Amino acid sequence: MSGNESSLPIVHRLTTTPSTQLLAAQRAAVLMADHLSPCSPYCEVWIAESQLNGRGQRHRPFASPPGGFYVSILMAAPQPLPMDILPLAVGWQCAQLLAAANCGQIEIRWPNDLCVGDRKLGGILCQSVVNGSRCMLLIGVGINTNSHLRDFPPEFQPYIATLADRGVQVDHACLLDQFINSMQGMLRADEVEHCAKLAASLDVTRGRTVTAVVDERSVEGISESWGADGRLRLRTADGIHELVAASISQIDGRKIRFEA
Q: Is the model's pTM score more than 0.85?
C-alpha cells in the first residue's frame, strides 16, 4: 500500500460490532501477515453505535450501549512509541476535545480512564504491533457520551458517568474528525511524552489515598501522580512505590469499579 493510497483516513461506520478494537487488531494482523507496508499517514478507523463485547484494561468487560462514542484507530507509526505512557497522552487529548465541546472538566485516572469526579466516563486501550522496522499502532476509545445511566447494567451504574446525564449532547461526527486529527499528531515519541506530562494536571488521584492491585496483592498509599515514565507513585509507610502493571481499585476507601 503506497503512501498516496493511504493519505486519507478510511472510516468504517458500524451499527454494532463485538469490538472495534478487535476489528482493528484483525486488520493489523492481515497487513503484517501479507507483508504490506502501509506508511504514515496511513489511517483506518472503526466507529460503532454500540459494542457487544467491548473490553478494557486486563480484558475487563466494558459496557457499550447505544449512544456512546466507540472508536478504534489503526495507524502506521514511523517508529515504536512509549506504550506505557501512551494511554495517558491519549487521555489528555480526549479531555481537551471534550472540554472544547462544552463537556466540562474531564479528569484522568491512571492508567487509562477518563473520569467525571470518581466516576468512569470512558476508557482507553492502546496496543502496537511491531515487525522489524514496521510498526502499527492501535488506539481504542470508549466514551459515555449520549448514553444514559439507565442504559447500562445495574452493577455498573454506581461507578460510571455519562455526558447525557449532565445535560450535554455530543456531535459524534465532529468529535470523530477531531479525534482522528489529534491521534495523527501523536505519532512521535516527543509528542506522546509531552501530552502524558500535561495529563498529570488532570490526575483525579493526586494527594488522595489510593488502593492499587499489583499481582493480586493490594498496595495502599498517597498518590503523588505519575512521572515521565508513566509509573504511578504511591507514598506508603515503607516509602515510595512506583507502579507499572497495576490497577486502581479504591480511592479514599471507596470502590471505583465493578468487579465480577
A: yes
